[in-house]
Description:
The chain is an alpha+beta fold. It has three domains: 3-226, 2-Layer Sandwich (Heat Shock Protein 90); 252-416, no CATH class; 429-594, no CATH class. It has 21 helices and 19 strands. It is elongated, with a radius of gyration of 30 Å.
Amino acid sequence: MCAKLYVPSHLAIEAMRDSGYKNTAFALAELIDNSIQAKADLVELMCGEREHIFGPRRSKRVEQIAVLDNGEGMNEDVLYKALQFGNGTRFGRSGMGRFGVGLPASSISQCKRVEVWTWQNGIENAVYTYLDVEEVKSQVRDSVPKPDFRTIPEYIQKIGNQFGESGTLIVWSVLDRLMWKTARAVIKNSELLVGRLYRRFLNNKDVSIRLAAFDLDNLNEVAIDKNAKPNDPIYLMENNSCPEPFESEPMFKPHGSDIVHKIEFMGEEHEVRIKVSYAKEEARTGYNPGSKPHGKHAKENVGVSIVRAGRELELNQSLVNQYDPTERWWGIEIDFPPSLDELFGVTNNKQFARNFSDIASLDIEALQREEGKTINEIKEEMNEEGDPRGPLLEIVQSIRREISVLRRLIDTQKKGTSKKRYDDEEFSVEKTATEHTRRRQESGHKGSSDEEEKMPPDKRKEEITKDLKDSGLTQGDAEQLAARTVSSNYKYVFVNAELEGSAFFSVQPRAGSIIIKLNTKHPVCYKLVETLNISDVEDADNIELSNRLTQASEALWLLLTAWARFEDEKEGRDKQFAEDVRNDWGRIARNFLQNDH
């Protein structure tokens, strides 16, 4: 007797192969999920390859991939169902299981033949069955064969490190859809992902995941043999895969306590926990820390980590400024139970939380501005329309606020480790721009800020300090910059700030001066302004390059002051028109810069 597939097999099997796995590593993760669910404390990912001749050269190609574990194993009835679509045993909401399609779907997304051996009373009693895509397509068979006793392949017995009293072996062959062609490439590209998805299990020593690459024709030739290390994207774990000097200590530090949201969903209360972290100062010291090994490691872990049942689903980048290299220096992790799968929109291949991504991609601030609604009003409106994603609004807004604070902290770190542009009196764009403005004033051109230059110096300094502090500067830096501006009678002040809207800078008359706020959320700030910042230019190794960048930097600042004066001299409808032009220019610049790759 054979168990029938739950689909018109010979017609649907090829369509089922396109099951949406991002790459081979994510497909393999489905098998590791099953092993951990079966209470395995050792999982081995082994890639066997052979040498092939391609014209005048020889090259190895991976031919088989095996996943071996020492979990509970399966009896014949469970194995009987394991390769059937939609007839698995992991339908519950208490663990990592989802829809009971993981083993067959992930396997045939990468190969044409998958074989399973499993045992509960020693490997000598292993039972076996398989699924072969070509046999199904050609209608040689339309069912999963009934399991029978079958000896585990000898090469697996030799390469495998541990065979428990119970366990499971899965072997992929006829590998026609792998993203990577060599065993070394499969291991290399799987290592970082496996370490991240299962970091909690690895860190708690609940499971050990071995990664091995070997030659099928020479079993003594094992090219790779290592254990996966935890890869923590919020960098709070002590022993992890981050390179020196942070391989045995956290590279980040927590930012406050965990944020806990109580969510009412489907008539029950559920808990969503958010952890927040950012880089320690020592991780960002020295010249260009992002180019160092630990900085490159952090670059691969940018995003909000979404964790379900202790296992990461995805590293979501909906809230990340893709153009900003400093985004690598903060980390946020969301932890929710499987009971909230429908709320978060967990996909059956456990690679996405689609509802979270959709809400995170909404421009809530724009909705509030345009429609004048509060978050609660938007949430209530979603509930009235039958949209179940309302509770995610509060979570996303909470994360947005945290990210905003983290960006300011990181920006302050950078300023603390480099020379401030306004420390150098010999290089003063403010001074040059002010001299040009004075000549325009003498020629009869008036600006709306000019009258307030007559304010008492102490009052000017107080108001400018307050505005600079509100923009994100520390009290000390704000006072220093305001005092310098007033004592030198400078017309212009530059400051970095997070601005709403599409303009990459704003013009703010304040106490006789004009504060030019550079929008750190705009790509211009990182693709141009920060690149040409004088403090970075002075760190350049090449003197000629440093001089050229210094000249370019000065030109940029003067360009901004020229626009600021142009806008300041306008009145009425002309002033409004100038502000509209600045916003439109920023919007177009943002679109060009975000789509240049």
